[in-house]
């Protein structure tokens, strides 16, 4: 649905006439806006939303500006939750191959990197992230003065396989530099998961002091407590680290409660992944000499 169609839909549902929406505008002009015959300017859109007492999110939910990305998100999620779904798998692999053979914009690079980061362990058709690709990505993001949404997603996925020194450089720049800290306040939640992935990798590497530092920094984010998934996953990592370093079984009980909660709400994929994650962390992880062998927890933010 286009934006003009959504505005017409809401106006009729709320029982407004075209004249009531913009009283100082000729109804014929508004009719052209609502029929898609005339471009809607940003200021006009703001006035229309105010007249209808609508939040922008209500309109963009049924008339998304990023429709292609929403389709990718659904496809990616479906494949992650059903690895045997051959039809959807073929569709995602075709998209991956298409991206492989073209110059990619930032959104496409983010999608390409997400596919490789998650599915290379699971599907033979998807190649691992190469050292050259990882170095190119690090060079790209470390030299940026302003981070966009897709930059944060790329960095989040890179945290799983970046060397600690490079991870620390990016974390310092994003979370501890005054300019980027203020920028992050206007961003969506994607950047929070950078710290979760960095913490997970440090735990696998038995770098517990660094993991503790990341957790402390992560607790300073989302001060308005808007992101429940982020905070509960952070608590899981803290309990895991506490169990490893302190040894008190109460921390393992809390992890089991978290896994049961995920199963109760139907998020069985993440519950199973975390169960496997815990078993491997508590086993001898020295066999995981290559970071790309570290298990990947599925995050529903792409």
UniProtKB/TrEMBL annotation:
<protein>
    <recommendedName>
        <fullName>HTH cro/C1-type domain-containing protein</fullName>
    </recommendedName>
</protein>
<dbReference type="InterPro" id="IPR010057">
    <property type="entry name" value="Transcription_activator_Rgg_C"/>
</dbReference>
<dbReference type="InterPro" id="IPR011990">
    <property type="entry name" value="TPR-like_helical_dom_sf"/>
</dbReference>
<feature type="domain" description="HTH cro/C1-type">
    <location>
        <begin position="7"/>
        <end position="59"/>
    </location>
</feature>
<dbReference type="InterPro" id="IPR010982">
    <property type="entry name" value="Lambda_DNA-bd_dom_sf"/>
</dbReference>
<dbReference type="InterPro" id="IPR001387">
    <property type="entry name" value="Cro/C1-type_HTH"/>
</dbReference>
<dbReference type="Pfam" id="PF21259">
    <property type="entry name" value="Rgg_C"/>
</dbReference>
């Amino acid at each position: 649905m286009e934006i003009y169609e959504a505005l017409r839909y809401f106006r009729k549902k709320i029982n407004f006439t075209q004249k009531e929406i913009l009283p100082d505008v000729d109804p014929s002009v508004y009719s052209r806006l609502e029929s898609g015959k005339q471009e809607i300017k940003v200021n006009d859109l703001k006035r229309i939303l105010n007249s209808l007492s609508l939040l922008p999110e209500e309109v963009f939910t049924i008339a998304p500006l990023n429709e292609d990305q929403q389709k990718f998100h659904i496809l990616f999620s479906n494949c992650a939750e059903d690895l045997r779904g051959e039809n959807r798998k073929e569709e995602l692999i075709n998209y991956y191959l298409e991206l492989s053979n073209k110059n990619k914009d930032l959104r496409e690079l983010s999608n390409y990197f997400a596919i490789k980061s998650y599915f290379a362990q699971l599907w033979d058709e998807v190649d691992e992230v190469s050292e050259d690709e990882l170095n190119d990505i690090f060079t790209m993001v470390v030299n940026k003065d302003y981070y966009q949404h897709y930059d944060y997603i790329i960095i989040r996925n890179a945290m799983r396989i970046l060397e600690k020194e490079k991870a620390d450089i990016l974390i310092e720049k994003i979370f501890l530099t005054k300019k980027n800290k203020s920028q992050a306040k206007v961003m969506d939640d994607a950047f929070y998961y950078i710290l979760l992935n960095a913490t997970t990798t440090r735990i696998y590497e038995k770098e517990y002091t660094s993991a503790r530092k990341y957790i402390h920094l992560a607790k300073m984010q989302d001060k308005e407590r808007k992101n429940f998934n982020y905070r509960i996953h952070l608590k899981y990592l803290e309990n895991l680290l506490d169990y490893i370093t302190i040894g008190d079984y109460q921390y393992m009980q809390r992890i089991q409660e978290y896994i049961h909660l995920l199963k109760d709400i139907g998020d069985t994929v993440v519950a199973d992944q975390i169960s496997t994650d815990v078993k491997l962390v508590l086993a001898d992880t020295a066999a995981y000499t290559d970071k790309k062998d570290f298990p990947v927890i599925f995050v529903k933010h792409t």
